[in-house]
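Colleagues,

For the teaching module next term, I've prepared a clean inverse folding example: a structure given as tokens, and then the sequence designed for it. I'd like students to try predicting residues themselves before seeing the answer, so please don't circulate the second half yet.
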């Protein structure tokens, strides 16, 4: 197909384009009518040549002929079939010459030059692209030929869009700025289109992939429209019909179609490939690199990968977006930190810049863009706790602070100092927090997220793990992608449920469970952010997984001095209290989590009993916490507190 970018500009005098198109169509129809009526076509041909010379641009029929590869006979047949809808006299001329007000294939074969029988077949352009339909499908030769209304509109220069496709799709916004990496992707797509190929555009950020698809369409001089997977969720015959209308509309409406195949079923994708291989139409299949891409890989279509931007190009993109939004200049440190950590998709960069222009600080604007991508798979928490509330031995605290420093200075170490060039593994960090329940593992993850100014994505395993083949991987991929885009801290509590030892394969369930673990190991290795996993049973974890961990922090059960400090932190300064002994409270053998729960319960007891917390309230709360584990105060839990 000839792309719009390849066409010369038209010299249209001062007349509206639709008027010129209508005149060209009617002038060419006059030539065909001469063959129908048996008159000399020379005067009509001369008038048409003169009009073509003045228009200096292809007519709508020229574009249709070139784009859908009509033969001269098929072109004349289509034009004469549309004749009664274009010029009223044509119906009378057809009735006089062919016995009816509509053209038939039999009449076309008889009166038009260059006739060939294969123009009647289903695979030939006139019927394949639904340019004409048979009023009587059982009478191919003698049935009246009815043109599609959309085709008639095109021939007279009316810029409508196929109604069904318009309802099932929506226009895509073209990104206002492209980095060199993304500009190279766009150029590659346009080049492949000019070579006559449908293209698969694939990348880890669906919004960036769609944005570059729109940019490629615009670069080819075409309007980009996105058709979602739901519009293709039909049987093979329905998919084939829809695709034929799509291909036709690339010519009639100068539209380039972007088909989102991420959620389409494998049979649908296979049918797409069968129909599109060898197509000359500018169609893009866009997908992320999530699990399930094997069906796309099997199509045999050229694949163009959309890379994540490096920190340098992200910095440029963010700087340009802020200037375009009129957001004012951010400091080099602010820009560098945001570009180094937040790997936002292209539309999110522009949205964040608009937020900054409205008064939001840059870090917050970048931080909140990808939250919606997590969906129901996890809770996005804004951590509000600091290091002062974390009671741990000095060595463990030092490990945790170093972990936060790793994330904070990642761009400097990996990019500026060149360490990232030494490995093709992920840029991120995976840490394991191991220890008994209540020893502060989740709290420590919140402290790190708060220290870094990042969201904490607390993964809900009940929403992630699915019994159906491949679903767990798809859901985990969504989480990892969103966390990587937004610099989020991923937290998997009780990670042994997902990262446990691979079992001996006894049945298909065991084999699939092992595949899940393998996929998780692969994603963790490629992950570019911070993933924290907690476990109460470190020995249950797969050894292949623990070897890939950057940091392992053991959380000890608190000793008496640590418990006294925890009690002090758990009782707020504003809490009314009388004769409370932290030393006596520390006698009770409780974990940090249990101490926090007991302090809260005692406060509620006091609120219902005079409004002042006493040792009696605290003692009751402690006994209830000990009872949860089958212990009593005064036994293994220490002497009585009240």
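(Answer key — instructors only)
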């Amino acid at each position: 197909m000839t792309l719009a970018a390849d066409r010369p500009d038209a010299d249209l005098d001062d007349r509206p384009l639709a008027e010129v198109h209508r005149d060209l169509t009617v002038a060419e129809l006059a030539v065909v009518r001469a063959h129908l009526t048996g008159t000399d076509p020379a005067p009509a041909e001369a008038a048409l040549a003169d009009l073509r010379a003045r228009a200096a641009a292809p007519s709508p029929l020229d574009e249709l002929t070139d784009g859908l590869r009509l033969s001269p006979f098929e072109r004349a047949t289509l034009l004469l079939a549309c004749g009664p809808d274009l010029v009223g006299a044509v119906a009378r001329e057809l009735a006089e010459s062919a016995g009816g007000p509509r053209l038939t294939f039999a009449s076309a074969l008889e009166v038009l030059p260059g006739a060939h029988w294969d123009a009647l077949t289903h695979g030939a352009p006139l019927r394949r692209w639904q340019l004409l339909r048979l009023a009587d499908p059982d009478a191919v030769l003698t049935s009246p030929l009815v043109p599609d209304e959309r085709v008639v509109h095109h021939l007279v220069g009316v810029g409508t869009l196929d109604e069904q496709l318009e309802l099932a799709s929506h226009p895509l916004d073209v990104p206002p700025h492209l980095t060199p990496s993304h500009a190279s992707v766009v150029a590659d797509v346009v080049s492949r289109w000019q070579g006559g190929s449908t293209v698969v555009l694939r990348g880890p950020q669906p919004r960036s992939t769609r944005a570059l698809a729109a940019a490629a369409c615009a670069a080819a001089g075409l309007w980009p429209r996105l058709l979602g997977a739901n519009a293709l969720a039909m049987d093979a015959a329905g998919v084939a019909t829809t695709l034929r209308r799509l291909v036709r509309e690339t010519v009639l409406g100068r539209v380039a179609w972007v088909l989102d195949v991420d959620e389409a079923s494998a049979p649908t994708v296979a049918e797409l490939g069968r129909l599109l291989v060898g197509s000359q139409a500018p169609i893009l299949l866009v997908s992320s690199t999530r699990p399930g891409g094997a069906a796309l890989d099997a199509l045999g279509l050229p694949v163009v990968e959309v890379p994540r931007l490096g920190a340098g190009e992200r910095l440029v993109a963010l700087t340009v977006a802020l200037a375009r939004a009129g957001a004012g200049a951010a400091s080099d440190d602010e820009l560098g930190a945001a570009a180094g950590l937040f790997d936002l998709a292209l539309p999110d960069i522009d949205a964040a810049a608009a937020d900054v222009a409205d008064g939001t600080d840059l870090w917050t604007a970048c931080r909140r863009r990808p939250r919606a991508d997590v969906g129901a798979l996890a809770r996005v928490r804004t951590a509000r706790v600091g290091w002062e509330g974390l009671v741990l031995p000095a060595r463990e605290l030092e490990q945790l602070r170093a972990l936060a420093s790793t994330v904070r200075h990642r761009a400097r170490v990996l990019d500026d100092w060149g360490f990232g060039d030494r490995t093709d593994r992920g840029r991120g960090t995976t840490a394991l927090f191991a220890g008994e329940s209540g020893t502060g593992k989740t709290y420590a993850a919140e402290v790190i997220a708060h220290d870094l100014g990042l969201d904490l994505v607390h993964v809900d395993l009940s929403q992630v793990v699915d019994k159906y083949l491949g679903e767990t991987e798809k859901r985990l991929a969504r989480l990892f992608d969103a966390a990587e885009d937004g610099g989020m801290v991923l937290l998997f509590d009780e990670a042994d449920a997902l990262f446990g030892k691979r079992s001996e394969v006894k049945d298909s369930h065991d084999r699939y469970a092992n595949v899940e673990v393998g996929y998780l190991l692969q994603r963790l290795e490629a992950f570019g952010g911070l993933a924290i996993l907690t476990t109460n049973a470190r020995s249950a974890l797969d050894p292949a997984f623990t070897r890939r961990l950057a940091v392992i922090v053991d959380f000890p059960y608190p000793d008496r001095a640590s418990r006294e400090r925890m009690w002090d932190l758990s009782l707020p300064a504003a809490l009314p209290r009388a004769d409370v002994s932290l030393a006596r409270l520390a006698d009770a053998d409780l974990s940090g989590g249990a101490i926090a729960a007991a302090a809260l319960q005692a406060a509620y007891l006091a609120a219902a009993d005079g409004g002042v917390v006493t040792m009696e309230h605290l003692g009751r709360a402690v006994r209830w916490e000990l009872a949860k584990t089958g212990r009593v105060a005064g036994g293994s839990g220490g002497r009585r507190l009240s």
